[in-house]
């Protein structure tokens, strides 16, 4: 059994997709990041970085519970545990390369593009341009790579595709103002349609659909999501 700590955002979505693809039994534990639940001491024992997703594998190595955090680490852990979606042995170097391209490039720059376009104070034009253009550049790198291939790595669906799906599912938000955000990236668009048509994608998108997460962007939410914007003592105390 996997205990899955979840909020409906791109990185947890990746893990949801893997769990649904692999048919693993899991218990969903909602973590409302807008309420600051990621900072609760009990959750920090699982992920000291205070981010979702995280999992606890109740049947980890040696039969002991094992906590894993960071979406890429979780995908690798679960893929190795189940021997699913790892591709062929000869694909391993490229699998690791593209997983980390997503983890250190496409994902974070997309996230920052969203932040500066939607959440940051007005007037930060340099930052808005910087992160939006870098998100576009990462999209272009992936689009070029997919020009002559069906999947990101090798000849089969892998955790690289699962990882990329999580963020590309939010392309409309990353590419604010574009009615058809994937139109400039036809190879990504074709790839995304194929991945998104898998039954597990619909199941992953429906995870926690019956749970009401906070949507109001008030001061509590700002302090919970962006504690570094407040003086350290103030942020810690929640005052």
UniProtKB/TrEMBL annotation:
Using the UniProt annotation, give all residue ranges assigned to the region (Disordered).
219-239
Q: Which residues cross the membrane?
A: none
Q: Which UniProt keywords apply?
A: Transferase
GST C-terminal domain ranges (all copies):
88-225
Identify one Pfam family in the record. GST_C_2
Residue ranges of domain GST N-terminal in the record = 1-86
Please report the name of this protein according to its UniProt entry.
Answer: Glutathione S-transferase
Source organism per UniProt: Pollutimonas subterranea
User: According to the entry, what is the taxonomic lineage of the organism?
Assistant: Bacteria, Pseudomonadati, Pseudomonadota, Betaproteobacteria, Burkholderiales
